[in-house]
Amino acid sequence: MNKPYNNKAWFFILPVFLTVAFSAIIPLMTVVNYSVQDIISPEQSVFVGLEWFKDVMRDSELHSALLRQLIFSFCVLLVQIPLGIVLALAMPHKGWKSSATLVILAMPLLIPWNVVGTIWQIFGRGDIGLGGYVLNLLGSGYNYASNPLDAWLTVLVMDVWHWTPLVALLAFAGLRSIPDAYYQAAQIDGASRWAVFRYIQLPKMRGVLVIAVLLRFMDSFMIYTEPFVLTGGGPGNSTTFLSQYLTQKAVGQFDLGPAAAFSLIYFLIILLLSFVLYNWMQSAGNDSANATGGHHE
Known about the structure:
Helices cover 74% and strands 3% of the residues. With 297 residues, the chain is mostly helical. A two-stranded antiparallel ribbon has the order 1-2. Strand 1 (37-41) and strand 2 (44-47) form a beta hairpin. Helix 1 (10-35) crosses helix 13 (256-296), helix 3 (60-90) runs antiparallel to helix 10 (206-221) and helix 7 (148-176) runs antiparallel to helix 10.
């Protein structure tokens, strides 16, 4: 006998839906409206259709900011994902050492973004900062305020310091979810440390690593506060990423129409790249699982 279907459960979802609609959908529709209008004054606007989108797509500064953003985001992934996995593998799995390590590792995540920028702004200075002083003592000539490469690398290292703990914590959670029976079977088979990682730990961490990659990609693609506090987008435009360029457009120049069109393009770029990245990781994971199955057979 089939049980009667109860639709009352949807009432529990209604507050969430209304909250999302109020905080996301309505502002998004406002941005869409601005993107097709020329805002002359708060009381007067002219419909311009797709004109702002065409102007934004022809903007050479936007193309440069997008290229810098893509390079930065993929460098973040190339450094933080392997480093987070290494840290998770090196962490104690039991006892008070494990708890202490988790607390210490998570400390950078608790620091506000603007404070992170201020910390590294002082740390990297050659006169009063420990990092800048040591690098200059070694004869590197480090100066993030005047050297574009130094500024870009400082922002990258700052982001690695701030967010690698998140990847490590997610990877550690994936490792802790692996039953001991897998390790016991590997020990009986005489599997090497690399074989254990390749055929047991890495496949079991795939789910959390997909989450880590997507979170870090989307967050790095929207980075704003830390480089703004550290370098202000300079020297020149070397650390002016897409979010800073958008802010300059909307706030600095008060071009609400082009800024709205740019923000929609920005949003679509993040969605598209995240979708491609997710599907690529899923496909790579399935190929790896098939290869693992074939290896065991």
